[in-house]
Amino acid sequence: MRSRNRVTIALALVGVCLLYLVGCGEEAAQQPISASTLVLEADGSFTQCRVESFDREYYQLSELDSMIRQEVQDFVSGKGGQDADGGQPVRVEQVSYLEEDSSRVMVALHFADSQVYEAYAAEVDQQPRELFYGTVRQAQEQGYDLTGNLLDAKKGTVITLEQLEKYMDKPVLVFADALQIRCPSRVLYCSSNVSLNDAGYAEGTDEGLKYILMK
User: Fold this and answer.
1) How would DSSP label each residue in 49-69?
2) What pLDDT was estimated at residue 38?
3) pLDDT at position 16, please?
4) Ramachandran area for residue 44 (φ above 0: left; ψ -120 to 50: alpha; else beta)
5) Is the pLDDT at 2 greater than 60, yes or no?
């Protein structure tokens, strides 16, 4: 089997993943994902969805599939095999060609929580990522300044400490990379470097940490 480095050279992120889930806006926007995207779930888990170009002249899909599954298996084995709830901390959701474009493949990995995601990125991808997905209370316990970074998604006004107290158990996402986010519920507040698009996604493109507080 060819090495991970040689296979990685053949993969260039272009970002299309055909998943249909509830969006970030007021109403569900049943639009296909069209950029590098995290699909958040209400239980704190999420799926990292990528579509990458694939050179079929030099590589086979089965080779990529085996490589990714082996990486996941090695990572899971090193973490004791199961998370606190008895499930796998990360699992392969899909590795397949796109039906409309066989020169690209879709790779989707499901992560039990953001700590697993950060560990996997650092250990397997060797590309450390900063990402937190949990409650407002948990975010504050980890030192994130939400009052200084959250704006009302409609009015653009800065959230006050009194307002934030009402949302201590609501989900919040903090991330550093330029990503598209599919939220499990409506976005109430977000930072100025996050925008909501017509397709029902939240997008963070500028540098620095980005914040999204959901209903």
Assistant:
1) EEEEE--TTT--HHHHHHHHH
2) 94
3) 40
4) left
5) no
Rounded Cα distance between 69 and 148, Å, is 41
Per-residue pLDDT reduced to its tens digit, 75-112: 999 876 665 556 789 999 999 887 777 787 879 999 99
Round to whole Å and give the CA distance between 4 and 119: 18
CB 16 within 8 A of CB 54: no
Query: What backbone torsions phi and psi does residue 11 show, to the nearest 5 degrees?
Result: -110, 125
Count up the domains in the chain and report the number. Answer: 1
**Residue 191 CB neighbours (<10 A):** 19
Contacts by residues 96-103 (CB-CB < 8 Å, ≥ 24 positions apart): 96/61, 97/54, 97/61, 98/16, 98/18, 98/51, 102/56, 103/53, 103/54, 103/56
The domain in which residue 74 lies consists of: 4-214
Radius of gyration for the chain, computed over Cα atoms and rounded to the nearest angstrom: 18
Residue 181 — φ and ψ, nearest 5°? -120, 130
